[in-house]
Amino acid sequence: MDLKTGTILAALTLLAPGCKIQYKTEKINYNPSRANVREGKRLTMLVCGSCHYNFETKDFTGKKLEDSPKFLGKIYAANITQHPGQGAGQYTPGELVYLLRTGISRSGRLMPYMHRPNMAEEDLDAIIAYLKSDDHAVRPSDRNPGKTKYSPIGRLGLSFTKPGKYQDARIQKPGSDPILLGKYLVDNLACFHCHSKNFTSLDVQEPERSKGFMGGGNKLRNAAGKKIQTPNLTPHATGIANWTEGEFRRAVTAGISKDNSVISYPMPLFPELTEAETSAIFAYLKTIPPIETK
Ligand code: HEC
Ligand code: HEC
Q: How many structural domains comprise the chain?
């Protein structure tokens, strides 16, 4: 390590503990419409499940996120069952909406993974209805998945990430146009978070403006702790230009790639997606600018 890097690192370590940024929260009154709880469960599995669903306990009690780079610290997705002492138990519908629209928790902490500024009201309402339902997977459980502890570098990274501004927008779900539906799903299922250049150059408000949108190359860790790069999903020969819709559907819902190899963690499986939804995602991906990966 040369002197310059040493000085910078030392400065970061000294400064960062002071960087525990507290954001202002707004109290909003939100009355969810009477939503379909079954659709809510499907959406909660699809949108929140990859982080919050625990396959051992078969409920939404959270877990450690192993794919995050170690230098950021230890990150645990919270227990989002209705337990009053845990993550989601105390949230009102207004606070949940605020968290998903801005990425700011009810205690003013930034949680960028949850930021979904473009989610339709209909889907928000269904997720809230499910989280407040009597389904076994959200019944109060006091299981504590562990407490997120960012390293100084992780905290510094967070201090550069901007939360969203709350807008009282009634966002409509796209109708049956497959391209618009595909775009909506790539946004709200966060495919572009992992399948673009990296996490720090994402544009959550306008996903297509993210660096290397869907071109892959984001460096994550697999279950064995090995570094892997996410694949390119743009319509280029080094992406999915030669894939069929059926191959794409099998990859996303069953985790088997075009060459029959098993697609591994941290790629989440999305078995709850309907055929219309996977073909919409596929149709949309065919319309985005192709990117070549080496
Ligand atoms: C990419 C992973 C990821 C996804 C997807 C995700 N979360 Fe989270 N969530 C986390 C992590 C990590 C934390 C804990 C953050 C911390 O402690 O700083 C968390 C915390 C929470 C909390 C607790 C906040 C608090 O005040 O302690 C709630 C509530 C929550 N998530 C709800 C949701 C809902 C609802 C969805 C789906 C619409 C969702 N999350 C999707 C990773 C995720
Ligand atoms: C948490 C990060 C993450 C998210 C979110 C994610 N993926 Fe992936 N995806 C990966 C990784 C990592 C791989 C490669 C895994 C491997 O090499 O085994 C992958 C592989 C794939 C593949 C196989 C590509 C190939 O060349 O074999 C497809 C198709 C795919 N993802 C589609 C999607 C779609 C569609 C979404 C959203 C609905 C999505 N992914 C969301 C991380 C993610």
A: 2
